UniProtKB/TrEMBL annotation:
Pfam families, per database record: Flavin_Reduct (PF01613)
Keywords, alphabetical: Oxidoreductase
Taxonomy of the source species: Bacteria, Bacillati, Bacillota, Limnochordia, Limnochordales
Gene3D superfamilies for the chain: Electron Transport, Fmn-binding Protein, Chain A
Protein name: Flavin reductase family protein
Amino acid sequence: MDAEIRKQVLRKLTYGLYVLTAVHQGELAAGTVNWLSQASFSPPLVMVGLKVDSRLHALVERSRAFAVGILGADQKEVAQAFFRPTEVSGGRLNGYPFRPGPATGSPILTELPAWLEARVTDAVKRGDHTVFVAEVVEAGLADPAARPLEMWDTGWFYGG
Ligand SMILES: Cc1cc2nc3c(=O)[nH]c(=O)nc-3n(C[C@H](O)[C@H](O)[C@H](O)COP(=O)(O)O)c2cc1C
């Protein structure tokens, strides 16, 4: 296999951009991710690939739950804020307001147009990311008309 062609082909997979959050015993973690997809209608499952050496991975592994905030097309700067290490100050997460999710307590970023909470059912540990499969247990929609932020439009890549 040609490694450069493989990289270019993998970079043509299409993604959204999301802020994934988790809490365990009062400790919060948040990060922007793109390796996320729905995985089953019934039960409603999602799957996400999380970097094994990240705080996000450590907290999801311990709490067995997370929240996903769906970024709007005009929220590229919010995505950027969550590439940085998690910082809680003045009741804000990396500068953005949040509240605890009703089902899992995972932080819900209140300025994002849509969110869901999920409880982990399975973890596939292989390579440098773990694929967590999780059942959607709660969801909220602040702006039904919002267009989601898409990876291709940002010029960013993660993978390949
Ligand atoms: C464009 C882009 C996409 C990313 N997608 C993912 C992803 O799908 N999964 C992941 O674990 N990290 C992803 N990251 C890295 C996380 O944003 C970063 O590791 C996160 O802020 C968590 O770091 P920490 O928990 O170690 O502080 C991505 C980074 C960039 C720049």
